[in-house]
Amino acid sequence: MIYEFRTYDIKPQSLPEVEKRFGEAYETRKKFSQLAAYWHTEIGPLNQVIHVWPYQDLEERRRIRDTAIKESGGKWPPDTAEFMVRQRSDIFIPFDFSPEIKPGKQGPFFEMRVYTYATGQLDNLTRAWAHALPFRMQHGKPTAILYSELGGLNQFVHIWPYKTLDERWAMRNKMRETGNWPPSVAAKKAGLPAYHLVQQENKILMPAAFSPLQ
Q1: Average of pLDDT values for 188-204?
Q2: At residue 71, what are phi and psi to the nearest 5 degrees?
Q3: What is the rounded (10 degree) CA torsion for 90, 95, 99, 101?
Q4: Is 205 within 8 Å of 51 (Cβ atoms)?
């Protein structure tokens, strides 16, 4: 399975109208395939929306996208071009230890952490996370853990749901105090090879009303 993350920077004060128009158009689009999630940023880069589409492979993505445009009666894509500032698309592959993104209630706050790792470090990163994640999942499961295949290269994304931002703060402090998290620390304790990052960013996201994942 692959996930396409489509990230749009939009004009200030346009979010309510963008989500309204997208939600209306999605009623037609979901007949061809459904979203995994639709978020907007609350903390981090503002005026940004992210919609996530699952596909079996790139060929299914191409076929469904072409069919949706041809057979939507002009209702897809949504009429939001006037609000767009910048658009990008990235294809991510879930790790074997990543949950599938399924409809349901997890949030409403989601932290997306995007790490750029040094070239050649994916294997070390994978081993470290595979080692440390079982401990972390005893205290809360991630929404998804993925690495990039197309778009921004050498990117590693992990997304965590929280009921409140205070819960996020308390959980992160609790995990660090154990010495078994983050994975870089746990890997060092276990004698696993270190992995090297060159850039990190995070975003706090919230779902639109029509997002299958809440």
Answers
A1: 96
A2: -110, 10
A3: 10
A4: no
Work out the end-to-end distance of the chain between its first and last CA atoms, rounded to an integer number of angstroms: 21
10 Å Cβ neighbour count for 166? 10
pLDDT, position 101: 97
Full-model pTM: 0.96
pLDDT of residue 27: 97
H or E element that contains 61: helix 58-71
Question: What is the four-CA torsion angle of 9, 10, 13, 17, rounded to 10 degrees?
Answer: -130
- DSSP assignments along 62-122, one per residue: HHHHHHHHHHSTT--S-S-GGGEEEEEEEEEEE-TTSPP--SB---SEEEEEEEEEPTT-H
143 pLDDT band (50/70/90 cuts)? Answer: very high
Cβ pair 48, 9 in contact under 8 A: yes
The H or E element that residue 2 is part of is strand 2-10
